[in-house]
Amino acid sequence: MKENGRLQDKIAAITGAASGIGRATAVAFAREGAKLVLADLQDKGLQETLAAVREAGGEAVVRPVDVSVEQEVKGLIDLGLATFGRIDILINNAGITGQTVGIEEQDGQDWLKVLEVNLLGAMYGIKHVAGHMRERGSGAIVNTASVAGIRSGAGGNAYSASKAGLINLTQTAACDLGGSNVRVNAVCPGLIETGMTKPVFDYARSAGKEAKLGSRCELRRFGRPEEIAAAILFLASDEASFVTGQALAVDGGNTASLNLPGMKF
Ligand SMILES: NC(=O)c1ccc[n+]([C@@H]2O[C@H](COP(=O)([O-])OP(=O)(O)OC[C@H]3O[C@@H](n4cnc5c(N)ncnc54)[C@H](O)[C@@H]3O)[C@@H](O)[C@H]2O)c1
After folding, report:
1. How many Å apart are CA 189 and CA 91, to the nearest integer?
2. pLDDT of 54-94, one tens digit each?
């Protein structure tokens, strides 16, 4: 039994596991006793995550996977089943930002790539694990969406649309699978320091604007990957046994108010 054993003997597959939120989730899951199937485009980052998981006392298999390619996602699910005999938890976490340009400069190819990774990637994962989870009569799926899927102002147009779509997919899949006791939820992170947001953080620090990072949140700060991993852990665990179809904002209160922090009238 590890830490509190909240995922003891569970098998969890995590995409986007080579960095940021995916890596923090892998380590948090390993500490709670889960065995892991880790996937990402970046093999080097996956190996680093594997080392971190082992250091936390965990066990994992890793597989380079492009989540926008359906057969590769199916291969990931098959790997989990072949290695551990079942998959209890799927975390669809891989994501890309795409362009941040004005509405008149939107590029269809960029939209397609963002939708393929952020939305179709998650759909493929749910599609290929659903039959297995239904058969077993249990399962938990968590999608990493974003505050960008709730309101404008946290990413480019395609990114925001992909995350809004992912929140909706979370609801429709939860309805499809609820009768089989398979839960589907989403987390919606606010600004978190990861590989994806490195350019933003690098720029702010180099320009002496670090204090502005996260200053639009009610908690007046940006978040850490571990704080998102904690929410994913809750939603994936049996503690959330009556929670499905929900999109949980983990954003320091960013989406709670239409005003800037402290500006209530
Ligand atoms: N960092 C933030 O502020 C923030 C906020 C809201 C939502 N998110 C979401 O969190 C998730 C994790 O991102 P992160 O912030 O940890 O960034 P990150 O860049 O550190 O991690 C994302 C990982 O996804 C992988 N990836 C990208 N495309 C892939 C593909 N086609 N197939 C497989 N793997 C792929 C990358 O290689 C990377 O390892 C993403 O879905 C992102 O949209 C992040």
Report:
1. 14
2. 999 999 999 999 999 999 999 999 999 999 999 999 999 99
CA distances from 50 to 19, 65, 137 (A): 11, 15, 30
Q: How far is the CA of 66 from the centre of ligand 1 (A)?
A: 12
**Predicted confidence (pLDDT) per residue in 24-61, tens digit:** 999 999 999 999 999 999 999 999 999 999 999 999 99
Domain regions of the chain by residue span: 11-193+224-248
The fold of the 11-193+224-248 domain, in CATH, is Rossmann fold (3.40.50)
Instruction: Exactly one of 142, 159, 164, 182 is catalytic; name it.
Output: 159
The structure's pTM equals 0.98
Show the DSSP H helices in the chain as ranges.
Answer: 20-31, 43-55, 70-84, 108-115, 121-136, 157-177, 198-206, 225-236
